[in-house]
Amino acid sequence: MKNLARCSLLVFLCLFGLNLSAQEETELEAEHERHEEHRHKNVISLGIGHAHINSGVENGEKQWLVLPSWMLDYNFWFTEKWAIGLHSDMIIETFEVEDEHSSESVIERENPIALVGALSFQPIEWLSLVAGGGVEYEANESFGLFRLGVEPHWEIHEKWEIFVNIGHDIKFDAYNTWNLSLGIGRGF
User: According to the lineage, what is the superkingdom (predicted)?
Assistant: First the structure.
């Protein structure tokens, strides 16, 4: 009789545990669906920051330049973790950089604009990793570029988020740029 009572208790506890486990899974699925409904497919972001250039030239001497910049990005989230977008940056000053092919000459850049096709991956809810390629346009000469970036972001309202963008542009046959920006994005 004791064995029957123990077996009954064991079966009851197992079934109760399975029920709790199923309930937890249902709650997690519902939370995931709420997050998916809340997630906006389209996000436009505007940021202000600084471009850091280690091969700048000022008064004929090599200098580390820190120049003001603006960024405007569009992302389309086609899954919960992946987005494709068009990212743009503009350095709002005229500056000179060392010519990579000749240490005696410089390249003058006047308000260059970078346009980048980017792929974003979100490994965790508040962080995006960005990679892409594009072109930095300028009146005298344009350069191809490859971009890598990290973008932590925090939701401040149902449709709004703030973010920090840390990016590295590797320009082909030219100078490289580190970008640090702070911005706001709106989903729709």
Answer: Bacteria
The closest alpha carbon to 109, from 181, 51, 49, belongs to 51
CA 29 to centroid of chain Cα atoms: 27
CATH number of 40-187: 2.40.160.20
Domain borders along the chain are: 1-38, 40-187
* 83 CB-near residues (< 8 Å, 6+ apart): 43, 75, 76, 77, 119, 120, 122, 128
Percent of the chain's residues with pLDDT above 70: 79
Write the DSSP symbol of residue 108: E
Most confident of 11-20, 52-61, 176-185: 176-185
- Amino acid identity for residue 113 in this structure: I
The whole model's pTM is what? 0.78
Q: Which of 88, 85, 87, 81 is nearest to 42 (CA)?
A: 85
Residue 114, C-beta contacts closer than 8 angstroms, at least 6 positions apart: 87, 88, 89, 90, 134, 135, 136, 137, 145, 147, 169
